[in-house]
Amino acid sequence: MKFALPARLLRALAAVGCSAGLLASCGGGTSHYDKFVPSRLIVFGDEYSALTDPKGTGNSYNYAMNAVDPTDSTNATVLCSDSSRYIWVQRLASYYGLVFKECNPNNLASGKLNAFMQAQYGATERAVEAQVSAFQGDIGHDALGSNDLVTVWVGMNDVIEIYKDSVTYSSTVDKTTEAEARGERLARLINSITDTGARVLVAQVFEMGSTPWAKAQGSSEAKLMTSISDAFNQGLRTVLLNDGSKIGLLTFNDAIANLVQYGNYETTEAACDDAHVADIDNASADSNGYLDGSASLSTCTTATVPNDSAAKRDLWADGIHLNSYIAHSTLGNLAITRATSNPF
Known about the structure:
Blueprint: H1 7-17, E1 40-45, H2 88-95, E2 115-117, H3 125-137, E3 148-153, H4 156-164, H5 172-194, E4 199-203, H6 212-216, H7 219-239, E5 247-250, H8 252-262, E6 266-270, H9 308-313, E7 314-316, H10 324-341
Helix pairs in contact: 1-8, 2-10, 3-5, 4-5, 4-7, 5-7, 8-10
């Protein structure tokens, strides 16, 4: 059976191939630009970009299903260096030969650790502003500059927070208006980051209504979450100074939608068992803009899922979080393509 490429996929491919119409192969001019090769990678955002190393061993956990160390017969040790389980920013860092302190299997000296993990579980848009300020104020490293590549992916937790808060945002219009305003604020923050000379890859929120958790709330509720997601992205795109020279827009929303609709993966259930998932139902944001509920998700590994098929076939690790094996490999490759094709 043959299928025509869906319009959404065509848009995603076109976005990767054409960087704001500036590349000669996309009908633009033929002017030469030097290829940008960053000396540092700085990651801001939420758990979809986060590594956590609570033991300080350089063998981090992710929130997308961890690999286990095959030399440990008890399956109690994760293996952050297993590239099949990299999250998307690890794939991007690896492409440029940059290493995170959190995942440092070769025990490189601190001076050689040039990938900086600032993303944290539960972050909302307002938390990312604090992440950027904290990085800029840390005297332990240089502030952002022209040799840096910055990634920003946030908004999924904003959608959850806004959706669940029907006191502050009592109507659909209230919810989508707030989401759009948050997207606009994030865009202004990203625009300000480019003033430092750093280049930025910013990803759009995927449709939270497509997640197993959203679908479990009912079709109308899932549709509402998608509307909130779209409003956030609308605000982001409207204000973002996206001419391709300093900012690369990652269409992660289209990429995930394609995996959901056309990827032939299991999309209705989560791979991780109930003892190793985030508590989404009871999650709420603290005063710093972080949603809670993370404790168990980082312990999800390929050894805690029902079988190997679930580890590789299920698109979702839990109710809202993506499986590293499937989704993050796709997103990482998309980020690499954008970083190397934009005229930074």
